[in-house]
Each structure stands twice: as structure tokens, then as C-alpha cells.
Amino acid sequence: MTTVRDIDARGAQHCETTALGVLLRHQGLDLSEPMLFGLGSGLSFIYWDSKAMGFPFLGGRVKPFELTGNLAATLGLELEVRETTSPRKAWGNVTAPIDAGHPVGLQLDSYHLDYFGAKVHFAGHVVAMYGYDDHEAHLVDTEQQGGAVVTSLTGLAKARAARGPMAARHRSFTLTVPGDAPSPADRIIPAVTACAEAFLHPPIANLGHRGIEKAGKRVRTWLQRTDHPQRDLPQAALLMEKAGTGGALFRNLYRDFLGECTRLIDSSHLRTGHGLYTEAAALWTEAAALIAKAGESVDARYLDQAGTLLGDLSRIEREAMEALSRLSSQGPAMR
Q1: pTM value?
Q2: What is the H or E stretch that residue 94 is in?
């Protein structure tokens, strides 16, 4: 059995921030999950639907692995990413750093992992790997999936080789914290303003605050969008609240990130953003509950209520991001 020593195998709420936490704590940089998410400018929104899709998709974060790239750029980390179509090379890309004493991040399809209870294909899943033997790999996944877990090498190989939406070519990555890396507190304002600008000025109407407004209009028609409302609507609500997001389509994580920031930086803009995202997180949970009720009862009135809430959320989040975007014009006043 080959394992990396002194691994802090804490599972967190979201898969990518869980893996990032494992890799960075091993480098001596211990940041909370909300801080990792916020410094990675992870918050976003997408409403996606097409004829090829069985049911519309609501997403609350940037696309898989973008958060990792953002975080590395923000904190000046050395990010080494390896991809290949060769399973043999892919395995060597993982075992080499582990043999040298370093954990590795993997992007894969969670469907093939032995310990996953919900067998749904999702190729944007991220885990940290810190050990292996002839039969099993030792991983760290979210708290919901068990934290420190094991899966067969056969299942891991299938998960890494999977193709389809969001899939990567056996992607693995390592992070190194250089000696001259900036203080995380000093990088809060650039990370917050970058996230705000992207949210306020999306290139298409499916994204950002415009996407939430669009979702508010489209969700009212969801009973006509499916032949299986009692399956599809509760599943959509479950994805909004429980699918590794920390609830409320990541608004809980961003609320907590902004709360941490207000304890480090004295800014009325931060306090405004934190207050509005506290309100938004609660409303997202309420909207998810209404969508689930609509499916269970096949009653469109619940979808009308959810649509109204989403309209309110578009306004609330736009106002929050407008306040946060003004951080750059206010010099930082560190507490």
C-alpha cells in the first residue's frame, strides 16, 4: 500500500473545494471551504435547456475546474494539470506524485465510483487521491459521500475514462504553494469583483442575473416540459439543495465567504453583499421546496410561486453584485 503521509482527509460540502482543501492543507495552507469557493470566484448561475436534454438544468457555480484555475491564479499557486487519452499514462500521472509524497486531484465521472449511492452520470466530479494498492484507490470526497473513502481501481479507471458532458481526458492535477504567495486576505477584493463583473455582465441571457430572471419565467412551464413530473421536478429540487453544493445552489457557501470577508475588511459594500446573499440563500431553499411540491402534487401553482421567487432573486443578486463590484473603488481597510 502506497499512501501520502499526514493527509487531513476532511470532507466538505462541495467536491471541488473538498479536493482543493486536501491538496492545500498538505502544503500548509488551511482555508475554510467558503474562502476557497470565494477566492476561486466560484459563484455563478446557468439555466440550460435543449431538445437533447431530458429536463432543464439549473447550475449555481462556474463550470467544473474553472474554480481551481481561478483560485490558483488568485493566490499565485503553481497548478500542474495533466491530461491524456492513454489509461497507462493517466495512471502514471497519478502514481508519480503520490509516490513522491503529494496528493493528487482528479476530475472524473462519479457514476463509476463504488461508494457513490446515487448512480447518476456526472463527469465534472472532483476528488483528491492520496493512496493506492493493487486493488483499491484511497480518495477524499465530500462529507455526504463519506470523506475518506475507497474505490476499486477498475471503477476508478472507468470513472477517469468516461466521456460525455463536462468530461476531461483523465485529468489529474497538483497544487504547490510558493514561498512568495500573496496573503489570501489581500486577494479577497480582486476575487469578489471579478465574480461580480462576470455575474452582472453575462455574454448570454442564460447566465448570471439574467439567467435567474429567465429561469423564473421558464420554471412556470415545467409541468408541460416533462412526462414524469413526480420524478423530474423533485430531482431538480434535490440537485439545487443536496447534490454536493452546500444547498441553495452555492449561495450558502458564498454567503459564508462574504461573512468571513466582513471580519477581515471593513467595507459597507461587503456588508451589503453579505446581507443580500443571506436573504438570497434562504429564498433559493424555499424555491427548491416549491419545485419539489409542484412535482409531487402536479400543481402548477407551486411553480408560479417558485417563478415569482426567482424573479425576486434575480433582483436581489443583481443588487448584491452591484454593491460588491464597487469594492475596487473603495480602498481596502483591513481589520
Answers
A1: 0.95
A2: helix 87-99
